[in-house]
Amino acid sequence: MRRAALRSVRLAATTSAARGVRAGARQAAAVTLLPQNAWAPVRSAAFSSISTDHVEVEDDEDLAQVVLEPLPARSGFADQKELDDFNFSEKLRQNLEAAGITHLFPVQAQSFDVMMQGSDIVGRSKTGSGKTLAFGLPIVETLLTEKRPPKDPRALILLPTRELAIQVAEEIKRIASPLRIVNVVGGVSYVTQENHLRRGADILVGTPGRIQDLVNKGSLSLDHVQISVLDEADMMLKFGFQEAVESILGCVPGDRQCVMWSATFPKWVNTMAKKFTRDAVSIDLVGDEETHVPATVAHKAIHAPLRSRIQVLENVLRHQARGGQTLIFTETKQEADEIANALTGQSVRALHGDLSQGMRSSTMDGFRNGSIKTLVCTDIAARGLDIANVELVVQYRLPHDKESFVHRAGRTGRAGRSGTNVVFFDRQDAGDVRDFEKRYKFNFKHAAPPLIEHVLDGAVHDAAKRLDDVPSESVALFNAAAQRMLDERGVDALSSALALLCGFDNEHLSAYSMLTGRSKTQTVEVSGAAHARELQELLSAFDSQLSRRDIHSVDDKFVFDIPHHSVERLREHLVANGADHITISPVIELSRVLVNNQNGSPKDGNSFGDRRNGRFGDRRGDGNGSRGRRGNNDRSRSFDSSFSRGRDRDNNRDGHRGGGNGGRRGSSSVFGRFSEPGRSSRSNQRGNSSGGFRDSW
């Protein structure tokens, strides 16, 4: 009978003694390892000589409470350890050095010895922290030491998407010579994969659907599997892969080792993990008090109503054109296509499950080599992808679940690099923004949509780089025509060419308010010695429509909206009225998120309702805004779950959501109307939903 007790250990150093005790480790009553932060050389250390530090756990205790204590917070990855601190086999050491790997990240160091003892693992680590090699290293070390191995796979790695399976297989190949790595995913010929399996496979990497098919056809035997790995386990068990995973794991030997890794482990995943693991050791490098996203990621929130969101997105991409690559997340395949098609004049592609395997592969190849700068994708499509040069993540719509937020944001800032995570929100999303801050213990900066001059600067810089790439032979062909146009039109000829090259041929650039999202509106701040009464009198004289309620105090300054074309005229007004000590400038960023409680209407007194349970609990409307809904969801609200299960998707979803026009709960603005997003409710279903960025944005 399977033992349900779970163990928790303190672990910071790794030893690799007892490589041959995989079966014996399962009989141990407790795991015995070095105390935390004892990074001593291990070549002379014996397993039996290490002091005991363990906790016994009752059968019914939740796995979420049985975790390794996280390492102390440090900047970047300064706590990497050199290879000399580990007793690797000579062949693995040669492979690591050939791959240019000289240090291990903490997650890799902490998991190595636990796996080498044969223990099952349920692990949680921040995105971008090196989880692939955390299970890849001990698998390779174990298989390299075996003599006369069988042709059938000895290690099985399951992943939720084809792209992630390809990425993991390539990463392990770098350190696995001469082991045979076979990748089996959907969308590829069965014949080709069956031929690879007949030639022999040591490590099998793939998606559940294709592996299950091959087993059912008799083309794949899992009788010799010693180690099974579920990577991105929360996604594996959440999006309909549970049945296939259970079927596959039912075909492997009962005494095999099972390892599960993810960046998030909600309680329901812990419950499922108990079905697949025995006496599991839990490794947690996140901890309850830490953010799940690397500290190198800056978080910015932009108020962008759906009616103008695509234009704001274009401006964001143009502004950061000097930097690296961008991932844009949305929740549906249809919207991913629509966004990619709308972003004219930019190197953009969509990535989702309705694309053919060939199209997805070419898209990923282009994104990895940099020829494609921006990828618009669904959550499942991009889960776990590791692209080093992703400097910006844009969450076009906020995700429905908190785990997706972590995985989205974690596509940047990987392995100690800096990155920026931008979320677009509308008035009804304000409470969700605050929920994310509370859950993951960070603060969004409220960023203004890029200023027109900054957008132009980025676009022209990008155009100049493209001009530099034109071959001199091609340039010579147009010299005569160019000179003729300059003579006839002067600088207007070059200006028109730049507008066309930058994608501004059919549109007029607009400023957008950071407080309401209105177009042709600029949010400005006042600096200099000014009192509220003095400022209000000056502004009323300038525009009688500007009232005291339109002026807001934040970060020790006054902030308000005016028409974009009136900014210079306001400066002149202040000087003419002897207020030249007051300066007006566009707001770039605020320390906290402010939200207009009036849906952009200066006279509308409605405010946010009461939010009882937050984004991820039940919602009940209190007041006149309550409403419920059950029924079918159309395609625009369906998840992209087709990456390893084919294209079947169930768009029917029962749900109940209510909202209310309840009373407003406190305002952070001394003048009213604006407040920090907090405990507010939505009366409608949410259909609206620093590397690379210049310091000015």
Automatic annotation (TrEMBL):
Domain of life of the source: Eukaryota
UniProt GO molecular function: ATP binding; hydrolase activity; nucleic acid binding; RNA helicase activity
Compositional bias segments (type: Low complexity): 666-697
Biased amino acid composition, Basic and acidic residues: 609-622, 645-657
Name listed for the protein in its UniProt record: RNA helicase
Gene3D superfamilies for the chain: P-loop containing nucleotide triphosphate hydrolases
Record InterPro entries: DD_DDX21-DDX50, DEAD/DEAH_box_helicase_dom, DEAD/DEAH_RhlB, DEAD_box_RNA_helicase, Helicase_ATP-bd, Helicase_C-like, P-loop_NTPase, RNA_helicase_DEAD_Q_motif
PROSITE patterns in the cross-refs: HELICASE_ATP_BIND_1, HELICASE_CTER, Q_MOTIF
Motif (Q motif): 81-109
Domain annotation DEAD-box RNA helicase Q: ranges: 81-109
Keywords recorded for this protein, A-Z: ATP-binding, Helicase, Hydrolase, Nucleotide-binding
Listed PANTHER family: ATP-DEPENDENT RNA HELICASE DBPA, ATP-DEPENDENT RNA HELICASE RHLE-RELATED
Pfam families, per the entry: DD_DDX21-DDX50, DEAD, Helicase_C
Domain spans labelled Helicase C-terminal: 311-456
A GO cellular component annotation in the UniProt record: cytosol
